[in-house]
C-alpha cells in the first residue's frame, strides 16, 4: 500500500463520464481514478496506472458537478486505476455525495475485501458504498459477465439497495463517440462485439 495517498482536498482523476449504462445499474456518473500498481495482465484500463498522470480535481467542485445532475442519474461508479490508493480523499468526497443525495455508490477494486482492511481510510469509503466489486483481474479466468471481468471477482452487496442479479444483468460495455471525434469504450471488455 505504499502508494496510498493521505491527501484530502482533491482526487487524481484519469477520466470521468457523466452518463453511462455500462458501469452499474441504471444511468451512472463514472469516475476513473488515476494510479495503480497491481499490474493485472490484460487490464482493460492500463492508461490509468501511472500515479503521476491524470489531473487533480478538487473534491468539492467534483461533488457539486455530480450533485447538480443527481435527478438525472441513479448513482456513481468509481473505478480506476485503483480507487483505494486515494481512499482518504475518496472517503471525504463520498461523504459529501451521501450527505446531499440518495445516489448509489458502486466501486470496482483490485483488492480483496480482506486486503482493504490494511488501508486506514477504507472503512469510511465502504460505509458509503452500496456495491463493491473486488479482486484482481485474472485474464485466464475472463468471463465478461455483467460487471465481472473475471470469475474470481467477488460482488459484495454492502447495502440492500441492489441484488446480485442487478449487478450481473448490467450492460457489459458501451461505446461513446466524443465531441472531439475520440471513441470511448467503457464497461467490462466484452468477449464478443
TrEMBL record:
What InterPro entries does its record include?
A: Aldolase_TIM (IPR013785), NrdG (IPR012837), Organic_radical-activating (IPR034457), rSAM (IPR007197), rSAM_sf (IPR058240)
Instruction: Report the cofactors.
Output: [4Fe-4S] cluster
Please indicate if the UniProt record lists Transcription regulation as a keyword: no
- CDD domains (UniProt xref): Radical_SAM
Can you tell me which family this protein belongs to? Belongs to the organic radical-activating enzymes family.
Q: What class of enzyme is it?
A: oxidoreductase
The molecular function GO annotations come to: 4 iron, 4 sulfur cluster binding; [formate-C-acetyltransferase]-activating enzyme activity; metal ion binding; ribonucleoside-diphosphate reductase activity, thioredoxin disulfide as acceptor
The protein's name is Anaerobic ribonucleoside-triphosphate reductase-activating protein
Domain of life from the UniProt record = Bacteria
Amino acid at each position: 500500500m505504499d502508494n496510498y495517498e493521505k491527501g484530502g482536498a482533491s482526487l487524481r482523476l484519469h477520466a470521468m463520464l457523466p452518463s453511462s449504462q455500462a458501469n452499474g445499474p441504471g444511468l451512472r456518473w463514472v469516475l476513473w481514478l488515476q494510479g495503480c500498481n497491481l499490474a493485472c495482465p490484460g487490464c482493460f484500463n492500463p492508461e490509468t496506472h501511472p500515479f503521476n498522470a491524470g489531473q487533480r480535481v478538487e473534491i468539492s467542485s467534483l461533488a457539486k458537478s455530480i450533485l447538480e445532475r443527481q435527478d438525472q442519474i441513479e448513482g456513481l461508479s468509481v473505478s480506476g486505476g485503483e480507487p483505494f490508493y486515494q481512499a482518504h480523499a475518496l472517503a471525504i468526497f463520498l461523504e459529501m455525495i451521501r450527505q446531499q443525495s440518495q445516489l448509489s455508490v458502486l466501486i470496482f477494486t483490485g483488492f480483496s475485501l480482506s486486503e482493504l482492511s490494511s488501508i486506514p481510510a477504507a472503512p469510511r469509503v465502504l460505509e458509503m458504498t452500496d456495491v463493491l466489486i473486488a479482486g484482481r483481474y485474472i485474464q485466464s479466468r475472463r468471463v465478461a459477465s455483467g460487471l465481472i471481468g473475471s470469475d474470481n471477482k467477488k460482488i459484495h452487496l454492502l447495502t440492500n439497495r441492489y441484488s446480485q442479479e442487478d449487478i450481473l444483468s448490467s450492460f457489459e460495455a458501451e461505446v461513446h463517440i466524443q465531441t472531439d471525434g475520440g471513441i470511448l469504450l467503457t464497461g467490462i471488455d466484452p468477449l464478443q462485439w
